[in-house]
């Protein structure tokens, strides 16, 4: 949000810059990982099956979920922030994130897809309301930090108790993640 507010034409170059930072490192890692598996004898494959693994893989589940999700987030970000003010784009993005989180659970995607999805929204709202959030955490700093840690631990506990349910994966895991981010923001602000 800072760059969106302060850099001219930021949104126009957003996807090109971000996609290069995601695709090339991700695919280099996939190629290295495949090479290691081949050398260790864990994978026996032809050139065609190796190319399928590198470029198609198991994007819905497995360890590649992040690349697919971040590309989706960046595409939605680009569309929303090009068409709406930051305030309305943040609200629409939050609604999309909540809908995605529930749908991903219903579709039985692995929980990394949605277990921390709302943290991205915390960053967006922090970018919009940096001064207000920083001032809020400065008042009663220790009490608010203890509260954030308590809610984070409560969310982690709820996640472990409820397990692979809607309450465990969607509700408690996101609560733990969001309050952990709030705690990090307040501590990093104090440190800097």
Determine the number of helices (DSSP H or I, runs of at least 4 residues): 9
Number of strands: 0
Instruction: Give start-end ranges of low-pLDDT stretches.
Output: none
Radius of gyration: 20 Å
Structural category? mainly alpha
| Average predicted confidence as pLDDT | 84
In one word, what is the shape?
globular
**N- to C-terminal distance:** 20 Å
Q: State the major sheet.
A: none
Report the order of strands and helices: HHHHHHHHH
Helix content: over 70%
Query: Hey, roughly how much beta strand do the residues contain?
Result: under 5%
Keywords:
192 residues; mainly alpha
Provide structural commentary:
The protein is mainly α. The chain has 9 helices and no strands. The chain has helices at 2-6, 10-39, 47-55, 65-83, 86-106, 118-128, 130-138, 141-162, 166-191. The longest helix has 30 residues, at 10-39.
Summarize the structure in short.
The protein is mainly alpha-helical and 192 residues long. It has helices spanning 2-6, 10-39, 47-55, 65-83, 86-106, 118-128, 130-138, 141-162, 166-191. Helix 4 (65-83) runs antiparallel to helix 5 (86-106), helix 5 packs antiparallel against helix 6 (118-128) and helix 8 packs antiparallel against helix 9.
Tell me the layout of helices and strands.
Layout: H1 2-6, H2 10-39, H3 47-55, H4 65-83, H5 86-106, H6 118-128, H7 130-138, H8 141-162, H9 166-191
């Amino acid at each position: 949000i800072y760059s969106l507010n302060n850099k001219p034409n930021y949104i126009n170059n957003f996807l090109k810059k971000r996609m290069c930072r995601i695709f090339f490192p991700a695919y280099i890692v996939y190629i290295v990982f495949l090479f290691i598996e081949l050398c260790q004898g864990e994978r026996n494959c032809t050139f065609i099956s190796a190319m399928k693994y590198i470029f198609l893989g198991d994007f819905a589940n497995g360890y590649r979920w992040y690349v697919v999700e971040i590309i989706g987030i960046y595409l939605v970000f680009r569309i929303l922030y090009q068409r709406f003010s930051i305030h309305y784009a943040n609200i629409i993005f939050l609604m999309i994130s909540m809908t995605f989180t529930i749908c991903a659970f219903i579709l039985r995607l692995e929980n990394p897809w949605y277990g921390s999805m709302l943290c991205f929204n915390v960053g967006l709202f922090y970018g919009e309301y940096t001064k207000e959030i920083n001032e809020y955490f400065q008042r009663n700093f220790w009490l608010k930090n203890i509260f954030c840690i308590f809610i984070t631990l409560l969310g982690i506990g709820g996640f472990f108790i409820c397990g692979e349910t809607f309450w465990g994966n969607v509700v408690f895991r996101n609560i733990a993640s969001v309050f952990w981010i709030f705690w990090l923001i307040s501590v990093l602000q104090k440190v800097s």
